[in-house]
Amino acid sequence: MNFSPRTLRALVIALVVIGLLALSLGGYLTPLTRISTQPVLAVQAWFARAYQGILTYLNAPKDINALRAENQRLRAEVSRLQTEVVTLQQQLTEAELLSALLDFARAHPQNEYKAAQVIGRDPSPFMHYIIINRGSDDGLRVGMPVVSAEGLVGSIEAVIPNAARVQLITDPNAAVDVVTQPSHTNAVLVGSLTGELSLDMVPPDAHVQAGDLVLTSGLGGRFPPNILAGQIVSVRKLSYALFQEAAVQPVVDFKRLQIVMVIVNFRPVDITPLTQPQEQAP
């Protein structure tokens, strides 16, 4: 059988195509296909990235100044909202303090109070006092007791028309006549340079112990009775000492004082001249 050259070429091409299809279906051409298509895929990925970059550039805001102004406006809005949050937190804290002070006043209805805000603190490590924004124009006088929602704070030491200085019970020169509960032991609560409180003049046979409460006794004429001042945390008793000593934890957190109350209807009495021995006339 004689084939023409054209027919022979067509037959050869058909056989090659059939062979390639058979090899491809058999998986023999997969490595070759992967190698041959990898450059094409890399070029295609590069064109895709370039196209995406061009789209991003074309869609970017035209006015950069407007974008900066909007960013500044948003920052100012965030700052304003943060300020409002802080203000609301302060108002909530003040409301809670006023509520606690009101509860204290209701628990001691025999006293009249005038609320005052703490506007200053002592800069010296050897003195313990605060400055309040009420003074003689508000009826405050030297010696008036000062309390907080927790208990005893101190007493007014100096007054000007619109402010007053309050000596804290932690001051080294402060001394408060107190009574312990439940043992009903009279003692003197004194401060110190470090701000720690302690009980002095505790009789050696008194049954005081850690956990006992310390309240004003009313003796001495400087403070009204039954105001909580602190709680005993430890007791020290030496066999050769004339009195026991006790460390006291104050009920007031003096570092966080913000609002206090002055007992304005209490008039302190200085009984020192009555307790000192009198000289006899010759």
Give the strand order of the largest sheet, numbering strands 1, 2, ... along the chain: 1-2-5-4-3-12
Report strand %.
25-35%
Computed structural class = alpha+beta
Q: How are helices and strands ordered from N to C?
A: HHHEEEEEEEEEEEEH
Query: Averaging pLDDT over every residue, what do you get?
Result: 80
Largest sheet: 6 strands, antiparallel, barrel
| Overall radius of gyration | 44 Å
Fraction of helical residues: 25-40%
Number of strands: 12
Q: What do we call the CATH homologous superfamily of one domain?
A: Rod shape-determining protein MreC, domain 2
Q: Helix count?
A: 4
CATH fold name of one domain? Thrombin, subunit H
CATH architecture descriptor of one domain = Beta Barrel
**In CATH's first tier, which class of one domain applies?**
Mainly Beta
